[in-house]
Amino acid sequence: MRPRPTVRLRLTLLYGALFLVSGIVLLAITYFLVGDRIRVLVYDPPPGGGSLPPVDAIAGRRQSTDVRGLLVVQSGIALAIMTVVSLALGWVMAGRVLRPLRTITAATLDISAHNLHERLALAGPDDELKELGDTVDGLLARLEAAFAAQRQFVANASHELRTPLARQRTLLEVAIADPDPDVGTLLATCERVLRAGLQQERLIEALLTLARSERGLEHREPVDLRTVTEEVVAGQRTSGVDVRATLGPAAVRGDRRLTERLVANLVDNAVRHNVPGGHVDVTTATVDGRPTLRIANTGPVVPAAEIQRLLRPFQRLTGRRQANPDGLGLGLPIAAAIAAAHDAELTARPRPDGGLVTDVTYPAADR
């Protein structure tokens, strides 16, 4: 396999070629200017007037030719020498210019998933190469954060899955260890095992939805956000919380099933984290050409500093991950991931008297 020319070699040849072309142009200009001057000096008539004798004219023409030939030869030799010198200087200068790139390449090759905390930290003037190094450092910082979030997510998911499995095993071991079990005890054990299995199914389904949302949408289709929200709200009428809907036109483009899951997660979250006698206000509308969904609920007071943490998987308001069959800590993160997959923006802010106001703003329909 023939080795490829390096960037340093290509820059050196480019420098040398530019110098050679410039030198040839300079010598051509000098030749015409000096050659014309030589012709004037040789063919100038004597001071007393008249013309040169034939012999002197022939000698002058020969002298002019010799001078021009000497000019061309000597200039060519000088040009060749300086071309070689320019190639050597170009090689050195190209190496100095490309030194930060070699530093970036070597450092990037040494960085892996185990040492993403390392940075290039290029020194020097604030030029394009320094900007490239800072860009790579920014990329490494984002990768480090993504890897840390992934490891935390896997650890949390493992813990959440381990809890119902341990409960199932304990229930079965207790039932087996009973020397004289009756039908009622066995039925109660089976029901509790089934409930634990249902919790696992919900968790696995939520994790799959989250993964699918973060992967993005493969296709988009027109979705009536008002109709989807109306269907979700209709299923919450028996929740014991007053769910009030004000539904205006809101047409979006995306995945209908994921859109339905987004609305359902937000409404379920608003109903679940509420207070006795509380209410949930659900609104759809098109504001400035952008479809919007707003869900506001009464509930416990949420510190503003906790909002961003609640948008991460398996995070709850108390800050403690607990085994609660009514909540997995994935409602808001799944909704945020689905919104991002639809190029929408999900924002949440606490209400002064308790509860949250969650807005999902989709891009304009003409985008």
TrEMBL record:
One of its GO terms (cellular component) is plasma membrane. It is found in: Cell membrane. Keywords: Kinase, Membrane, Phosphoprotein, Transferase, Transmembrane, Transmembrane helix, Two-component regulatory system. Its EC number is 2.7.13.3. Its main location: membrane. Signal peptide: none annotated. The chain crosses the membrane at residues 12-34, 71-94. CDD domains: HisKA. SUPFAM superfamilies: ATPase domain of HSP90 chaperone/DNA topoisomerase II/histidine kinase, HAMP domain-like, Homodimeric domain of signal transducing histidine kinase. InterPro entries: HAMP_dom, HATPase_C_sf, HATPase_dom, His_kinase_dom, HisK_dim/P_dom, HisK_dim/P_sf, TCS_sensor_his_kinase. It comes from the Bacteria. Residues 156-366 form the Histidine kinase domain. It catalyses: ATP + protein L-histidine = ADP + protein N-phospho-L-histidine. This is histidine kinase. The lineage of its organism: Bacteria, Bacillati, Actinomycetota, Actinomycetes, Micromonosporales. The gene is cutS_2.
